[in-house]
Amino acid sequence: MPRPSKIQLNREGRTLTLQFPDATFVLPAELLRVLSPSAEVRGHGAEEPKLVSGKINVGIETVEAAGRYALKIVFDDGHDTGLYTWDYLYQMGRDQDQLWAEYQRRLEAAGAGRDPDVGVVRFV
Questions:
Q1: Residues near 41 by Cβ (< 8 Å), separated by ≥ 6?
Q2: Which residue would you say has higher pLDDT here, 67 or 40?
Q3: Where is the Gamma-butyrobetaine hydroxylase-like N-terminal domain positioned along the sequence (predicted)?
């Protein structure tokens, strides 16, 4: 996967725009944070990734190059591990709708939410 020709951080809009040769993707900070490729989120081995909730207001502090193959993203909640390879970022952009839908399904199944100040009440 070629690297993006342009990377633009919009702190106010909490997005990261990546321009690849064949596509441009605008990725929300929340999606990048909850689907971090870090071991903390992805787990170790075959286990299901950790569900990260309450990140609707997360922002990106900085974006740093990690060699010629990835980015290191530092979030304003302190999370700063995991390298976002060009392939992973391209996949996230390409499959964004599907990834959001799956994330929201997992949140609902766990009785969790995107907003850290709003709990989900379930009646049984």
A1: 34, 35, 49, 50, 52, 82
A2: 67
A3: 7-90
Q: Using one digit for the tens of pLDDT, what is the confidence trace for 2-21? A: 899 999 999 999 999 999 99
Measured in degrees and rounded to the nearest 5, phi and psi for residue 88 equal -65, -45
Total-model pTM: 0.90
In a domain, 1, yes or no: no
State the total domains in the chain. Answer: 1
Question: Which of the residue ranges 11-20, 34-43, 64-73, 100-109 would you say has the lowest mean pLDDT?
Answer: 34-43
Q: Are 72 and 66 in contact (CB under 8 A)?
A: yes
Residue 121 in any domain: the answer is: no
What stretch of H or E contains 96?
Answer: helix 96-110
Q: Is residue 29 part of a domain?
A: yes
Structure tokens at 71: 């980015």
Let me know if 63 is exposed, middle or buried by CB neighbors in 10 A (0-12, 13-18, 19+). middle
Is residue 124 included in any domain, yes or no? Answer: no
Which DSSP letter does residue 89 get?
Answer: H
- Residue 36 and residue 55 in contact, taking contact as beta carbons nearer than 8 Å: no
